[in-house]
Design goal:
Oligomer: single chain
Number of strands: 12
Shape: globular
Number of helices: 4
Structural class: alpha+beta
Helix content: 10-25%
Largest sheet: 6 strands, antiparallel, barrel
Strand order of the largest sheet: 1-2-5-4-3-6
Amino acid sequence: MFTGIIEEIGTVAAVERRDDGVVVTIACQDVLGGTDVGASISVSGVCLTVTALVDGGFTADLAASTLAITTLDDVAPGRRVNLERPLAADGRFGGHLVQGHVDSVGTVTDVHDEEGTRFVRFRVPDEVATYLVPKGSVTLDGVSLTIVDVGSDGFDVALIPHTLEVTTLGALSEGDRVNVEVDVVGKYVAQYLQPHVDRLAGGGEC
């Protein structure tokens, strides 16, 4: 479990493509502390398992299923990635509950600055958008953010200067893709209520 508070920006050092997926090497420093082989690290919002510790970084495997649903499908050396270790039991919960299980890929449709804040609009599939609510939480490339507004053509977030500086979101421009994870609490609530909604729609009683 993660919180969406980025600890470090790492860099993809090497990519080895295989028939069954990809082995990626991430160059980093801070997240190596207390990390062993088998541990989880959020890499731009994707929960990956550390398969080896190397000098100045770690390696992880990207399965075909991960490549199919995340922006890591075109990962290449030199790419910057947001990194976070799992939440420690005695740690502060600074963001929100983040699993590192990406729901879809979103696309940037607008970027503009206003009074020291950068507003970015994203487009996501309808089945994902249904879980987004104004003032609710969303995870973009591993970063916990508050949704400013939700419209028929997407949703907006506001990025303060600190977020722009310490995450990769500061480099976003129109057309860029991001990994999107909606609030897991909302998904659980929706799944619990759906049978009752279906019953009401069919004329039944709750």
